[in-house]
Amino acid sequence: MVTAIAALGFGASFxxxxxxxxxxxxxxxxxxxxxxxxxxxxxxxxxxxxxxxIFSVGFGKRLFGFKWKETDYRLSLLPLGGYVKITGMxxxxxxxxxxxxxxxxxxxxxxxxLVLVAGPAMNIALALAIPFVIGLFxxxxxxxxxxxxxxxxxxxxxAAAEAGIQPGDRIVKFAGIESPTWSKVRxxxxxxxxxxxxxxxxxxxxxxxxxxxxxxxxxxxxxVGDAGLLxxxxxxxxxxxxxxxxxxxxxxxxxxxxxxxxxxxxxxIPNFDWFKQSLQAYENxxxxxxxxxxxxxxxxxxxxxxxxxxxRIGFVPAPPPPLxxxxxxxxxxxxxxxxxxxxxxxxxxxxxxxxxxxxxERKVADVVSGPIGIAKASGDAVKFGGLEGxxxxxxxxxxxxGIFNLLPIPVLDGGHIFLLTLDAMAGWVGWRLTDDIKNRxxxxxxxxxxxxxxxxxxxxxxxxxxxxxxxxPPPPPVENPPPAR
Length: 485
Fold this sequence. Notes:
The protein has 3 domains: 12-139 and 376-464, no CATH class; 145-231, PDZ domain (Pdz3 Domain, Roll); 241-317, PDZ domain (Pdz3 Domain). 41% of the residues lie in helices and 22% in strands. It contains 11 helices and 20 strands. The chain starts with 16 loop residues before the first helix and ends in a 21-residue tail after the last helix. 32% of the residues are buried.
């Protein structure tokens, strides 16, 4: 079973609307995934005729509930998951001593295994069900993600520009993946910050082997890679200024509302994404910006600077044209394939991140998050993706919870399954694991989990609040427009 322990302290002055949204999203995401996990254990135990004494949503003191048959269904004080109490899981219990048939330890090892594995299985089922339902009824995604990776624009000073990639190039191989879609390019760029990535491009009928080193940037407290590869699907629309931030480089240069941005460092600006990414290479460097104002063309000199962690000049643009979207209601088989592909994609990216840890290319702190990190990610998901973002992060956490609980770590379901298997194998040769050995195994596992919890909590705090360079700014007073895609 899973025990979730978290201590989150917020003074009244910190209970802003954004913090409340973050906390609400956190409780919904973590609570749902853990309750679903415990429901798996509960349903399996009931189905097999074991006695379940308590099914609790939350931990701690019982607030209210009702009793039906032998089970107390309750809501408890701390809404950080839940738990199930099955009769006879402790060898010292009276039900075990009396050898009652409805006690857990009195049932066959096969029945015990089914109860243990049912929790993680429910988490994996939820991770599959979320994209399945989305694919069946609500599927919507930028069309370019499923298309071949043909470069539409390359920002100035980006990793792609430094590698020699040009607009019109077709990426035929990226990080060892043949004929990648933009979705693959995006994913494997994000997890390879600062690492050389082999890229093969096709240009004018010829193939060229290049190397891109994605530049690290902060996104919601996490470091991700950015290569500056923009798809051809982004509509061409030169940015138009809506408002100028007082005291910003834009204000000092004399930019005004309704100015249209034409050129940046003598290069034509194809769209806002190109302009925003090109700025990142010009921190504290004077540059010429060409604008159109009331039919006249003006050249203005300005110096971009770091504002809230990102290189900006300080203006609000008109919302860019929306990206073409793929909207469809998939068939049952199509939705099932979509759900399977999404979960395989998550597992592949997670596996690659852990491989980088073992190769010494990535720190553990960059990959592992605790309750505070989950709360921050849940809040960001709701803020930028709404209800769809909330379900996305819920599916991702549920998949991770299911897989993690199957690992042979003491105290977790996988640790109990490991002991159960070991005991069964020992029984084949006339041996058995004593209760003392099992208790020591579980005590060691509990100590390991407490150390892991302390590490991830410390990691969350240092990564999100004590970092010298701020995380990606909240949306934005300046260049970032309201998310259009």
